[in-house]
Amino acid sequence: AQSVTQPDIHITVSEGASLELRCNYSYGATPYLFWYVQSPGQGLQLLLKYFSGDTLVQGIKGFEAEFKRSQSSFNLRKPSVHWSDAAEYFCAVGALRGSTDSWGKLQFGAGTQVVVTP
Amino acid sequence: NAGVTQTPKFQVLKTGQSMTLQCAQDMNHEYMSWYRQDPGMGLRLIHYSVGAGITDQGEVPNGYNVSRSTTEDFPLRLLSAAPSQTSVYFCASSSSTRQLMFEQYFGPGTRLTVT
Fold this sequence. Notes:
The complex is a heterodimer of chains A (118) and B (115). With 118 residues, chain A is mainly beta. Helix content of chain A is 0%, strand content 51%. Chain A is globular, with a radius of gyration of 14 Å. Chain B contains no helices and eleven strands. Chain B is an all-beta fold and 115 residues long.
């Protein structure tokens, strides 16, 4: 069965420190990978995506993520966090499998809540 | 472009009442989806549509109906609200182009409370 796991429910980080959020997936086909961010009371905004090619992808707001096929991971990183990065972050996975039932559908992880302290 | 819009933003219902959550997009996207978000569970797919007149069930469809009469609109109907349907509901849309079909654009959400 397909699954998306974000092992960390909650992370606290100091402003200016680095941040890494983990995402592991289990999929039977080549995955398309996404990170979304949700600020309090807001909808989801796409941070970055991976379809193919270079396994290190750059996104908005200074975020980057690395796809590691051997580890089935797509971890999100930011070298220096800002107070405005406090939000919930979701990893999502989709795949073009043989059946069209999967087309356009994303499976989301449970999310990681990031708190930024002064 | 307004993108994906949802109304209302907030709603309180009594058990057994019915209502429709509205969703519209102006990006001419063929794919549209409804999700519910509950603490610790991420987003779960309720229903989705790959075009006007075509809908299908997602992971948690029970208690919800959808229809898609136009490309722009994708309303979600709760026929008889239950407390278990207290949640935040998100509508999303995407292009039907390969790969881009997974790049979903989200509305701001509707926070529903059922008492």
